[in-house]
Amino acid sequence: MKILVTGGAGFIGSHLCERLLEEGNKVISIDNFDDFYDFRIKIKNIFEIFKKKDKYSEFLEEMEKKSLDKKEILREVEKFFYCDSYRIYYEDIRDSESMEKIFQKERPELIINLAGLAGVRPSIERAKEYIDVNIQGFINLLELCKKYNIKKVIQASSSSVYGNNKKVPFEESDNVDFQISPYAGTKKSCEVLGYIYHHLYNIDMIQLRFFTVFGERQRPDLAIHKFIKAIREDKEIQMYGDGSSARDYTYVGDIVQGIEGSINYLLKNKEVYEIINLGNSNTISLKEMISTIEKLMDKKGNVKEYPKQSGDVDITFANINKARRLINYDPKTEFEEGVRKFIRWSEI
Ligand SMILES: NC(=O)c1ccc[n+]([C@@H]2O[C@H](COP(=O)([O-])OP(=O)(O)OC[C@H]3O[C@@H](n4cnc5c(N)ncnc54)[C@H](O)[C@@H]3O)[C@@H](O)[C@H]2O)c1
């Protein structure tokens, strides 16, 4: 089937596109290659989708020789990868006109919205931008779904909507009225708006609450990636708080399996609106995370403690019974194994 993936050049998006293509789908990917982190990393992600990581440097060198700017490079990327089963469009999901042209031309059957500004801490400084991208972007897509009669949508939500929930593990039926960062607020808003579009226009929708995703191609701003780089380069590891905060780390391959399960569920059922946790249902403290990395790299990190950051929750911990029951979600990669895979990937 023809699936439109927004944020398709990002960390989770590129893994998802890879799997969807392997399974014979047509993938329309949209990404504005924003500067939240280096846009070249996202180009590299696309090369990895096609198992052409080795060709990436060659491609970039050629672009540099021609002295192309970012926009021109990305137009070249669009052309380079354009084929029957895959297209990458360098566009912004907030841009109604350009997005409509893509919807008109491509007529996707299902939308998976992973595009957005991620990250809790930067959202405190850049609240307006987060609201603009994450909420306006999503509404723009929903309006196009309405206009082009697209009835199946998956939206990336986040464990951060639980705020500092005291009851663990977090269940979908828990009260989520108390987010503690603008980022989390945008994700909660998209859950609310998603239900409204489902109710008004019969759009079947699943909102997936991802719990701290890690693995190959993980964003460079995320802790595991940062810490491994710091150890390798003999730099300081900044540990916020006393190391007791804990996260339910979820391997990206398991997340992709959960998204695929959601696609199947949407295709088999009508009148769907579901919110589903995708976690590993196992917590790892910050201290344990650091010691696992040290063990696997066989090198001690230079850890320095800093005050806890506002916006950061103390713990995330997913109850995944609903995901197991509805979408046959079955996370398989343990934390240590996932970190080992990341380290191996980052060495080459
Ligand atoms: N990684 C996690 O641990 C995690 C946890 C919970 C939720 N999420 C959500 O999952 C989604 C994917 O996250 P990720 O970790 O892969 O992040 P990412 O930053 O690697 O991917 C997001 C992609 O969206 C693109 N993008 C941003 N604004 C855009 C816009 N206006 N138009 C088009 N594209 C745009 C970016 O260029 C990027 O490639 C995000 O919505 C994020 O909030 C991620």
Query: What is the radius of gyration?
Result: 20 Å
The mean pLDDT is 97
Question: Helix and strand succession?
Answer: EHEHHHEHEHHEHEEHEEEHEEHEHH
What count of domains describes the coordinates? 1
Physical arrangement of strands within the biggest beta sheet: 3-2-1-4-5-6-11
What is the CATH architecture descriptor? 3-Layer(aba) Sandwich
Name of the top-level CATH class: Alpha Beta
The CATH superfamily name is: NAD(P)-binding Rossmann-like Domain
The total of helices stands at 13
Q: How many strand units?
A: 13
Low-confidence stretches: none
How far do the termini sit from each other? Answer: 33 Å
Q: What is the SS-derived class?
A: alpha/beta
Portion in beta strands? 15-25%
CATH topology: Rossmann fold
Bound small molecules, which ones? nicotinamide-adenine-dinucleotide
* Percentage of residues in helical conformation: 40-55%
Summarize the structure.
By secondary structure, the protein is an alpha/beta fold. The chain contains 13 helices and 13 strands.
Question: Can you describe what's shown?
Answer:
- With 348 residues, the protein is an alpha/beta fold.
- The chain has one domain (2-213, 252-279, 317-332): NAD(P)-binding Rossmann-like Domain (Rossmann fold, 3-Layer(aba) Sandwich), CATH 3.40.50.720.
- 47% of the residues lie in helices and 17% in strands.
- It contains 13 helices and 13 strands.
- The protein has helices at 11-22, 39-49, 53-65, 70-81, 96-106, 120-125, 127-147, 182-201, 223-232, 252-268, 286-297, 321-327, 335-347, and strands spanning 2-6, 26-31, 86-90, 110-113, 152-158, 204-210, 213-214, 236-240, 246-247, 250-251, 273-278, 284-285, 302-306.
- The strands form four sheets. A seven-stranded parallel β-sheet has the order 3-2-1-4-5-6-11, sandwiched between helices. A two-stranded parallel sheet has the order 7-10.
- Helix 1 links the parallel strand 1 and strand 2 (26-31).
- Helix 1 crosses helix 10 and helix 11 crosses helix 13 (335-347).
- The chain is globular and about 55 Å long.
- The two termini are 33 Å apart.
- The chain binds nicotinamide-adenine-dinucleotide.
